[in-house]
């Protein structure tokens, strides 16, 4: 699918990976809707890119439905959705209060399911591409400092693969799975740990990935009409690659 002239929604688009994806889509000529809970940062991103903005909590059904309706009303339809919003807070499972880890699962997995649920009917008859942003936290069997986050991202990866048959209805669902990305938040965390003389946890060691590399991977999945239900792994210092689909 060619990105130019298409309507694209990016959740969590105010900063970090999401903002890099927004910049890539804007540069490629998409009609862009930036979606984020942070209204000042989200509006700043939208102003920079001459895009639309909608403040929304993507864990809430009403907000997700409004997001899709906004794209249809303001732009005449929807062809591209990037489910990027995610993250987690501390303390973590099993020591966290229920609302903490429940919120993490809702943000990283349930919101993806909600987005797809409402995007598929909107894309019917037009064709569409959905890209979910997962994480290397959801791969393999190594421990992770955010167990509920890792479990939710594993769910995103598996969900993506199971939805490959949607291509028969004109909607392709794929996934980008980055290792640690050099966002402002990650760089700040590394700097603080190093200043405190603390050891870096495994996810923060090694070569980081630029947010722009993740944006490139998203664009590749949108543009390649042959790919559906695939997971693209992005690892610092290595070429991005598709994981086997069996």
Please characterize this protein's 3D structure.
This protein is an alpha/beta fold and 246 residues long. Strands 3-2-1-4-5-6-7-8 form an eight-stranded mixed beta sheet, sandwiched between helices. The protein has seven helices and eight strands; from the N terminus they run βαβαβαβαβαβααββ. It has a single domain, classed as Rossmann fold.
Per-chain topology:
Blueprint: E1 7-11, H1 16-27, E2 31-36, H2 39-49, E3 52-55, H3 61-75, E4 80-83, H4 98-123, E5 128-133, H5 147-162, E6 171-178, H6 184-195, H7 211-223, E7 231-234, E8 241-242
Parallel strand pairs: 1-2, 1-4, 2-3, 4-5, 5-6, 6-7
Antiparallel strand pairs: 7-8
Question: Which terms summarize this structure?
Answer:
about 250 residues; alpha/beta; Rossmann fold; 7 helices
């Amino acid at each position: 699918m060619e990105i130019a002239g298409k309507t694209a929604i990016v959740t969590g688009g105010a900063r970090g990976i999401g903002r890099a994806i927004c910049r890539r889509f804007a540069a490629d000529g998409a009609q862009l809707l930036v979606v984020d809970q942070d209204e000042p940062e989200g509006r700043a991103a939208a102003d920079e890119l001459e895009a639309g903005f909608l403040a929304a909590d993507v864990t809430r059904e009403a907000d997700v439905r409004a997001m899709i309706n906004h794209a249809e009303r303001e732009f005449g339809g929807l062809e591209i959705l990037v489910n990027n919003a995610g993250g987690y807070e501390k303390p973590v499972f099993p020591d966290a209060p229920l609302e903490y880890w429940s919120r993490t699962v809702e943000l990283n997995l349930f919101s993806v399911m909600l987005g797809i649920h409402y995007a598929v009917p909107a894309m019917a008859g037009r064709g569409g591409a959905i890209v979910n942003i997962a994480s290397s936290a959801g791969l393999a069997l190594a421990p992770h400092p955010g167990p509920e986050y890792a479990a939710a991202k594993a769910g995103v990866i598996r969900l993506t693969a199971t939805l490959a048959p949607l291509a028969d209805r004109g909607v392709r669902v794929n996934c980008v799975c980055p290792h640690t990305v050099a966002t402002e938040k990650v760089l700040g965390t590394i700097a603080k740990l190093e200043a405190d003389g603390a050891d870096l946890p495994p996810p923060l060691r090694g070569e980081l990935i630029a947010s722009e590399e993740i944006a490139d991977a998203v664009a590749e999945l949108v543009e390649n009409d042959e790919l559906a239900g695939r997971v693209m792994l992005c690892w610092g210092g290595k070429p991005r690659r598709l994981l086997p689909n069996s």
